[in-house]
Write a structure and sequence with these properties.
By secondary structure, the protein is of the alpha+beta class. 28% of the residues lie in helices and 54% in strands.
């Protein structure tokens, strides 16, 4: 239960860091070995991911979770969330619903995101 709460807390910190483009916080939460597969299937590194925030190219204005599941598996945890996202990328507005899967790993006393995947949710309506 403690690990579950720890992940829930870290997820809140991650959301806040993404919304404010807080690169120090993102650096703390993301493993140097991150593999992030984005919504178009491109593989991004930790540096790629943080650079988008650092440069100001990516600005997230809305990040509302509609569904979240957290499963702790020993020294790892899987988080599956569906998020309604709005923001700007390279000056162009974007919005959509995305499903994210994140793998957190506990090592040397800290949890970090080692892998993440994002897919667009194509609504039936």
């Amino acid at each position: 239960a403690m690990r579950q709460e720890a992940i829930e807390q870290l997820e809140q910190e991650l959301r806040a860091a993404m919304m404010t483009s807080n690169c120090d916080e993102l650096d703390r939460l993301i493993s140097p070995d991150l593999v992030f597969t984005n919504q178009v299937g491109s593989r991004l590194s930790k540096d790629d991911d943080i650079s988008a925030h650092k440069s100001g190219a990516l600005r997230i204005e809305r990040l509302d979770y509609t569904d979240k599941k957290v499963r702790v598996l020993g020294s790892s945890a899987i988080v599956c969330v569906v998020a309604d996202v709005e923001g700007q990328y390279a000056g162009e507005p974007f919005s959509g619903r995305f499903a994210y899967t994140r793998l957190w790993h506990h090592s040397s006393g800290v949890w970090k995101i080692v892998a993440a995947h994002c897919s667009p949710v194509l609504s039936a309506d």
